[in-house]
Design a protein that fits this description.
The structure is a homotrimer.
Chain A (H helix, E strand, L loop, with lengths): L13 E2 H8 L2 E3 L5 E2 L1 E2 L9 E4 L6 H6 L4 E4 L12 E4 L3 H12 L8 E2 L4 E2 L4 E2 L4 E2 L4 E2 L4 E2 L4 E2 L4 E2 L4 E2 L4 E2 L4 E2 L2 E3 L4 E2 L4 E4 L4 E3 L5 E3 L6 E3 L4 E2 L4 E3 L6 E3 L4 E2 L4 E2 L10 E2 L4 E2 L4 E2 L4 E2 L4 E2 L4 E2 L4 E2 L4 E2 L8 E3 L4 E2 H16 L19
Parallel strand pairs in A: 4-5, 5-6, 6-7, 8-11, 9-12, 10-13, 11-14, 12-15, 13-16, 14-17, 15-18, 17-20, 18-21, 19-24, 20-25, 21-26, 24-27, 25-28, 26-29, 28-30, 29-31, 30-33, 31-34, 32-35, 33-36, 34-37, 36-38
Antiparallel strand pairs in A: 1-3, 2-7, 22-23, 38-39
Helix pairs in contact in A: 1-3
C-alpha cells in the first residue's frame, strides 16, 4: 500500500533521471518516466519505485507491477517488461536515497517552545528545535540544528554536537556526545549504574558513580534503552554504533565503532567490545570481558568468556557457532528419538543489521 | 487484607442477589446477604467475596472464612458452612465482574488540563480527559471518552477511536488505532525501526521508515513496551492482542487477533503471527517467520523457524515441547550423574494469560 | 582520567588523616599528605586515591602511581614506594566513603519548581525538591527531603517516607514506600498487571487489579524497570532490595530483604523470594514459585521450580550449578568433537552485586 502522506509527506513526482542522480545509480529505460513514490515490491504500482536485493527475490521481481525497480546488474534480466530500472551495486542503499528524496526527513523547525525550561546558561547552537516541556539544565551545550523532543530532559553540563536528536521523553545526564547522535523516545542515558557493596550487617551502600557516558558521532540509542554512566572512568560508545530498543549497557562498558546491538541485548559492566561487533536480539554478555572486532554474537547467546576477533558464537554459555550447531543437532535427535522433528531444521539466527 | 480504599474507592455494600446479576452467576444461599468487598480466598472475612478456580484450590476453599465465594458447580460441595456462593461456569470472569462492581474503574473525568498542549487542529471526541503536560500534535484525532495521561505525547496525525487510554509518559507517533486501546505508562509506539544499511566504507545509513503502526480494537501495550513503525508497509497488531511490559515488537511485525505476548518477549521484524498465538516471558522470535494460529511459545524460547498452527514449542532453537522435554531430561541426567537432581522435575512453563 | 568536575563537583583537598576518619580506615604513611580526588588504580596520579580489592590486583597495585590506595592489610606489602595507604577490612566500602567525601551527592535543593503541578491536598515534608513539570496527585504524601525529578508523576494517594528520590520521567501509582527509596529515570511502578481472562467468545476481559506496590526502606528501582501492582493482595519489595534497569516484576511478587535483581531479569506473578536472593542478568522466573533465602540464580537462567535456600542454580530449566556445569561440558565436547574448543572453558557467571 502507498506510504501514508498524513505521516510521511511526499515530494515529486520525480523523473527516473532525477532518481538516478539521487541514488548514485544508472538509469535503464526511459529516463523521463515520472515516478510518484515508493512501495514494497509485491504491492507497488506503475507509478512507484521498489527495490530487490539478492537472488532470492527474482521471482517476486518478475511478478511485480512496480513502475521502476532499484536492483543489481545481475537481476536486470528478470525485470518485467515495461518497468524501468535503477542499477546499483548497493541496491538497498540506493533505494534508501530514492525513498529519502520522495520523503525527506522532516526539516528541523528552529525555535524554542515557550513551555520549554532552559537554564539561563544553557547554550543552544543555531537552528535548534526545542519542543513542549523539554528541560535543559545548567551549563548544557547543544550544537547546531539539534532537535529536542517533547518532555526530553537534558541534565546539567551535558554536551551534544551538531544535528543531534534527543527525542520525546528521553532523559540524559552526565553525557558528552558527538555529532548526529540520536536518543530515541524513552532512552535513559547517564544515570547511576548498579554499583554497591554490602556492609558486614547486610545492608547495601551505593558506590559513588563518578564517570560519564561518552557517545561518539552518529551513535543511536533505541527507545527505552539504558546506558549507565561509569563508576570512575567512563562508559564509552564508539562512533556509528547503533543500539536498538530496550538494550541495557552497564557502567564502564566500552564499544568500538560501528557496533550493532539488537533489541533487548544486555552488556554487563566493564566489558569491552572492539569495532563492528554485532550482537543479535536478547544476547547477554557478562562483565569484564573482551570481545574482539567483528565478532558476531547470536540471538539469546550468553557470553561468559572473551571472544576472539571475527568469531561467530552462539548459545549459553556461548561457544563457536559450528560447535553449537553440532550440539543442537545432538539435542534435537535425542528429543525426536531419531525420528524427524516436527519443525524444519534451522541454524541459529545471525544478527542482521536490518530486515 | 482488604483492598486499600485510598487507591481503589469502594461502592456498596451489595446483596448477593445484586452480585449474582452483575456476575451472570447463580446465587446459592441467602440472596439478601450483604457483602462489602472482595479479598483473596485465604484472607477474606465474613463480609467479603472470594473466588476459587479449579480443583487444586478445594482445600483452600474449605479453610476459607470468606462470606461468599464465586465458584464452579463442581466446587460447591466444598463450600464452608455459613458461606454463600455465586455459581458460574467461568468463576474467574464472574469474580472479575463482582470486583468491578465493588471497585468500578475510575470514571473518565472529562476536561483538558490547562497545561496540556493541543495543536489547534487536533480533534478530541466528547468527554475526553487530558492530563497535565500532555502533548497532542497537529491533526491528531481522538474518539470519545479517551484518557490521555500526564506527560503523554501523541504525535501529529495519530488517530485513536473511542475509549482509548494513553497513560502517563507514554509516547506514540505514526499510529492509527481502533477503539478501547490502552498504552500503559512509558509505552513507545511508532518510532523509527532498527533499519539501516552499511556503506562500503563501513558507515551506517538509516533506511527511511515510512510505515505506521496499526493497533486493532482492544489492543493493550504494556509499560515501557516498544512497537516500531513499519519500513514501507505497516506494523500491525490485531484486535484484542495483549502485549505485556518491556516487550519489543520490530518493524513490520504483523499479529492476528487475541495474541498474548508476555513480558520481555522480543519479536524481530517482519515476523507474522496468526490468531491467539501466545508467547511466554522472555521468548524471542527471529525475523521473517510465520507462526500459525494458536501456537504456544514457551518462556525464554528462541524461535528460529516457522511454527505450524497449534504447536507448542520451547527451547533455543525452539523445538516441539515433547521433544524438548526428552532433551531436558537427558541433560539433567548427565548433570546429576544418574543420581537424583536436587530440584524437583519440571516441565517448561506454558504461557499463562494470567496468574 | 580524573573525574569530570563539570558533572561531579569536587571538595578538598583532604589530608590522609581526614580520609582515614571518613573511611573508617587506618592511615599508613604521612597522615598530612594532601589528596585531591579519586581515580582508577591504573590511571591515578600522585594526588589521587585509588583502591584495590582482592589478590588478583596486586600486579596492578605495584604498577600504580596513585598517591594513596585503600586496601586490605594483606595487600600492604605490594604498596609502591612513596604511596600512602588506608587499610580497611572492607576496601571497596572504605573507598566509597572516600569518594563520597570528595564528591558528595548533590544536596537536595529544597523548593518547588513553579511549573510543578501539585494537588491541593498533596503533602510534602520539609526540604523537598520538586523539579520542572513534576506532577503530584491528590492525597499524595512525601516525607522530608525527597527529590522529585523533572516530569516525574506521583499518582493520587501514594506515600513515600523521608529522603526518597523519584527521578526524571519516572511514574508511580498505587504505591506505599518507606524511607530512602529511589526510582531511577523511567521506572514504572504501580500500573495494572497483566491480568485478564478469556470469554467463551475469545475476547479478553481485564481482571480488576486492586492491589498496591509496597516498597521497603532503601529499595532502589532501576531505569525503565517495571513493577506491577497486585491483583488483590500487594506486590511487595523488601527492605534494601536493589532492582536494576529494565527488570520486570509481575503482580503479587513478594521479595524479602536485600535481594539483588540484575538488569533485564523477569519475575512472573505471585512468585515469592526470601531474603538476599540474587538473580543475575536476564534470568527469568516463572510464576507462583518459592525461592529460598540466599539462593543465587545465574545469568539467563530459566527458573521453573521452587529453589531451596542457599542453592545456586543456572540454565533453562534451571538446575543446580554443579549439575549444569557437567551438562555444559558434555555439550561442549559434542560440539568440538573431542577437540579443543576455540574458546576458553568457563563457568556460568555468578551474580555480582557490583562490578
Amino acid at each position: 500500500m502507498p506510504v501514508d502522506p498524513r505521516f510521511h509527506p511526499v515530494t515529486g513526482p520525480h523523473s527516473l533521471a532525477v532518481l538516478a542522480e539521487a541514488a548514485g545509480a544508472r538509469a535503464v529505460g526511459d529516463a523521463g518516466r515520472l515516478l510518484h513514490g515508493v512501495a514494497p515490491l509485491r504491492s507497488a504500482g506503475a507509478g512507484e519505485v521498489s527495490f530487490v536485493d539478492g537472488r532470492r527475490n527474482l521471482e517476486a521481481l518478475r511478478a511485480s507491477k512496480a513502475g521502476a525497480v532499484v536492483l543489481a546488474e545481475t537481476s536486470l534480466a528478470a525485470l518485467p517488461e515495461g518497468a524501468v530500472a535503477l542499477v546499483s551495486a548497493t541496491p538497498q542503499l540506493a533505494f534508501a536515497r530514492v525513498a529519502a528524496l520522495f520523503h525527506p526527513a522532516p526539516a528541523v523547525a528552529a525555535g524554542i517552545h515557550p513551555s520549554a525550561v532552559l537554564a539561563p546558561d544553557a547554550e543552544l547552537g543555531e537552528g535548534c528545535e526545542v519542543g513542549p516541556y523539554a528541560v535543559i539544565g545548567a551549563g548544557a551545550v547543544l550544537g547546531a540544528r539539534c532537535v529536542v523532543g517533547a518532555h526530553a530532559v537534558i541534565g546539567p553540563g551535558c554536551r551534544f554536537g551538531d544535528d543531534c536528536r534527543i527525542l520525546a521523553s528521553a532523559s540524559v545526564s552526565h553525557c558528552v556526545a558527538g555529532h548526529r547522535v540520536t536518543l530515541h523516545p524513552g532512552a535513559r542515558v547517564g544515570q547511576e549504574g548498579f554499583g554497591f557493596a554490602p556492609t558486614p550487617q547486610g545492608r547495601f551502600v551505593t558506590l559513588p558513580q563518578l564517570g560519564r557516558v561518552l557517545l561518539g558521532d552518529e551513535v543511536e540509542v533505541g527507545a527505552n534503552a539504558c546506558i549507565d554512566r561509569g563508576t570512575l572512568d567512563d562508559t564509552v560508545i564508539g562512533d556509528g554504533t547503533r543500539i536498538d530498543n530496550l538494550v541495557q549497557i552497564g557502567h564502564n562498558v566500552v564499544t568500538g565503532r560501528g557496533c550493532v546491538l539488537v533489541s533487548q541485548v544486555g552488556i554487563s559492566g566493564s566489558t569491552v567490545l572492539g569495532d563492528y561487533v554485532t550482537a543479535a536480539g536478547q544476547a547477554g554478555l557478562a562483565g569484564h570481558l573482551k570481545v574482539g572486532s567483528r565478532a558476531r554474537i547470536g540471538a539469546q547467546a550468553g557470553v561468559l568468556t572473551d571472544i576472539p576477533e571475527g568469531m561467530d558464537v552462539t548459545g549459553t554459555p556461548a561457544i563457536p557457532l559450528r560447535d553449537s550447531l553440532r550440539a543442537s543437532i545432538h539435542l534435537r535427535n535425542i528429543g525426536a528419538r531419531g525420528g524427524k522433528s516436527a519443525l524444519a531444521p534451522s541454524g541459529p539466527q545471525r544478527p542482521d543489521k536490518t530486515d
